[in-house]
Design a protein that fits this description.
The complex is a heterodimer of chains A (323) and B (76). Chain A has one domain. The longest helix of chain A has 36 residues. Chain A starts with 5 loop residues before the first helix and ends with a helix. Chain A contains 16 helices and no strands. In chain B, β3 and β4 form a beta hairpin. By secondary structure, chain B is of the alpha+beta class. The model of chain B has no long low-confidence stretch (mean pLDDT 87). Chain B has a single domain, classed as 3-Layer(aba) Sandwich (Glutaredoxin). In chain B, 34% of the residues are buried. Chain B contains three helices and four strands, in the order βαβαββα. Chain B has a four-stranded mixed sheet with strand order 2-1-3-4. Classes of the chains: A mainly alpha (323), B alpha+beta (76).
């Protein structure tokens, strides 16, 4: 998979050794080369990925989703909800209106949660940065586990019959019909929206990417080889739960976090531990819980967070075992 | 004219308000700009993704920040 990015490596080499004139095989060269190569690769993949998903997204509206999932029970619909979650935009400020909208349309609570779990976990920007830094295989694993986590987590919440822990007022709200249904978009309009999407997300995340890559680059160039293997290697069974417990409340821009993790993996942090950390950062965060608190009672929030955290810990162990 | 901005106070909602106020100032049109943060009202309009813009009771846009061109069209 790395081959298609070979030209970028050539450019990075040229800039590092040619333009900057840094001697190869030095710590500085390793850092600078890492930073240039990563930044280029991340932005190329970000643009392609966001464009593709934003285009697909013009076909998926909350109105359609509600119709598809309304009153549907069964594992199959958890899977559909989770899949829709992967391509849905997720801004925590929309999570409450979406939640109420789903419940009002008769989407079962568990199916709604399948959507709510996967939606922030698998988003196009994080996937692009993951792909650029950790490669295709780790990214595919991340996406598949994000979907599985949503399906199983939501299914479990469905089985537990937790409807009583949803605030009563949610069931009373009536979702109105939009006065005018949006007109059908043509291809050009969809492309325009997709370009807008790229612009909007890149504008928002570029600074985090640069900061993250710079920190990662320094670590890559200067930290001793295998330093993390020694302290947080696979034989340290506490590493995964600790990584997840740190990641859960953390609300950080995951786009900046990923390149740092990449450099940590380079120094011996196991891939399962790393992915578990990243998943826990993206899946649940304190601000999102505070927003959800408006519609969910604390018991349900506690169950939701526990299910997600425990599943991520298992996922981390599983990958450490398999990879 | 009444312009309502639906959203629960995220960065995009603030941006939406700024753009609308800017266009209003430029064109000299008068309108009452209100921020709506109440979920019930937001959902009663059928909006599930914020920010959204409602002009005189009609949902013009949901899920993204409008550009100035769009705002001009609505208030014309």
């Amino acid at each position: 998979m790395a081959d298609i990015f070979y030209p970028l490596q050539l450019i990075a080499d040229k800039i590092t050794y040619g333009v900057f004139g840094i001697a190869p095989d030095t710590n500085l060269a390793a850092s600078v080369n890492f930073i240039i190569y990563d930044v280029m690769k991340i932005f190329v993949l970000l643009a392609v990925m966001i464009f593709a998903i934003s285009y697909i997204r013009t076909y998926i509206t909350p109105e359609k989703t509600r119709k598809v999932l309304g009153g549907k029970k069964g594992l199959r619909y958890h899977f559909v909800a989770s899949l829709i979650g992967t391509v849905s935009p997720f801004c925590s400020c929309s999570s409450v209106p979406l939640f109420i909208g789903f419940v009002e349309a008769g989407v079962p609570l568990g199916v709604t949660f399948s959507f709510l779990i996967t939606s922030p976990l698998v988003n196009e920007a994080a996937v692009a940065v993951l792909w650029a830094t950790l490669g295709f295989k780790a990214t595919a694993l991340y996406v598949v586990s994000g979907i599985v986590l949503g399906v199983l987590g939501g299914y479990l919440i469905g089985i537990l019959k937790l409807e009583k822990y949803v605030e009563e007022f949610v069931y009373k709200i009536k979702v109105g019909q939009k006065a005018s249904e949006p007109e059908k978009l043509n291809v050009r309009e969809r492309v325009g929206i997709a370009f807008e999407g790229v612009k909007e997300i890149v504008e928002k995340v570029w600074i985090y990417v640069i900061i993250g890559v710079s920190i990662g680059g320094l670590f890559h160039g200067y930290a001793p080889e295998g330093i993390l293997e020694r302290y947080a290697g696979e034989d340290n069974l506490l590493a995964v739960p600790i990584a997840v417990l740190v990641g859960v409340p953390l609300y950080s821009n995951v786009m900046g976090m990923i390149p740092i993790i990449e450099s940590l993996i380079g120094k011996g942090l196991p891939i399962g531990t790393s992915l578990a950390f990243l998943m826990s950062v993206t899946a649940v965060s304190l601000p999102e819980m505070i927003i959800l608190k408006k519609v969910l009672k604390k018991e349900l929030i506690a169950i939701f967070v526990s299910i997600v955290a425990v599943s991520i810990i298992f996922t981390g162990y599983l990958f450490n075992l398999l990879l | 004219m009444k312009i309502e901005i639906l959203g629960t106070g995220c960065a995009k909602c603030k941006k939406t308000k700024e753009i609308i106020e800017k266009v209003l100032a430029e064109t000299g049109k008068k309108a009452e700009v209100v921020k709506v943060e109440n979920f019930e009202t937001i959902l009663n309009y059928g909006v599930m993704i914020t920010p959204a813009v409602v002009v005189n009771g009609e949902v013009k846009l949901a899920g993204k920040v409008p550009d100035e061109k769009e705002v001009r069209k609505w208030i014309a």
